[in-house]
């Protein structure tokens, strides 16, 4: 005999594109697909084989399941629905599954942000340039998500909020908590400010050299956090030929070390020196 297929019924209709399904064994599925919620009614059967389903999620951890259920008492269902559409789109565009905590965190954030914006309150985001530079793929997804929110709820989403959405999506795509992503971004921002102070000038954000340095700093920090710093066979030569730039790079990395409680090895500082030297001339 073939395996018994568990029957699912519609638990909630979040919007025309998102349904919450539940089986007899209490298994819950979040399903996303264009038009699957149109005309759908709670309690009606809905097979997981429906061809309109583009993406589905299951919350595995009990704590996340509980938090997701609690979410419905504080966040309107349409907000949870748009969050699920953004999560499905992010998984597709970023090419990886997101940590399941995003199903609670993103909807909660969007709901809170909409309440603030309706009240005329916008929170400053001092890391906009850095976020856009460090996480371009998540930024692109967040921009699209912000447009969907604007269209669905008829309210303008400022660029600061795009930045916050980006941080949520990036942290979920790398199994990293938002506060950890913020700490990393903050460390890079402080490092750039220190570099500008030491050089006595503002770095041109639009130039390729700036983008290259920002990307290098991000990956260098991630390598060090993972305990996988790279070797630099030219470190001694760089220190000899570019002593001033090496000294500046050393002081810049000290800012990051203090912020993140990590140690930058000489090989990594030497690589950063090459970026610093381009701005020193």
Summarize the structure.
Pfam families: CAT_RBD, PRD. The chain is α+β, with helices and mostly antiparallel strands and 281 residues long.
Please give a structural write-up:
Pfam families: CAT_RBD, PRD. The chain has 281 residues and is an alpha+beta fold. It is 59% helix and 8% strand. The protein folds into 3 domains: 58 residues, Transcription Regulation, Sacy, Chain A, CATH 2.30.24.10; 117 residues, PRD domain (PTS-regulatory domain, PRD), CATH 1.10.1790; 102 residues, PTS-regulatory domain, PRD. It has 11 helices and 4 strands. A 4-stranded antiparallel beta sheet has the order 1-2-3-4. A hairpin with a 4-residue loop joins strand 2 and strand 3. It is elongated and about 75 Å long. The N and C termini lie far apart (76 Å).
Structural class: alpha+beta
CATH class of the largest domain: Mainly Alpha
Q: How would a textbook summarize the main sheet?
A: 4 strands, antiparallel
Average pLDDT works out at 89
Oligomeric status of the shown chains? single chain
Our Rg estimate from Cα atoms comes to: 23 Å
> How many distinct domains?
3
CATH third-level topology of the largest domain: PTS-regulatory domain, PRD
Order of helices and strands: EEEEHHHHHHHHHHH
* Order of strands in the sheet with most strands: 1-2-3-4
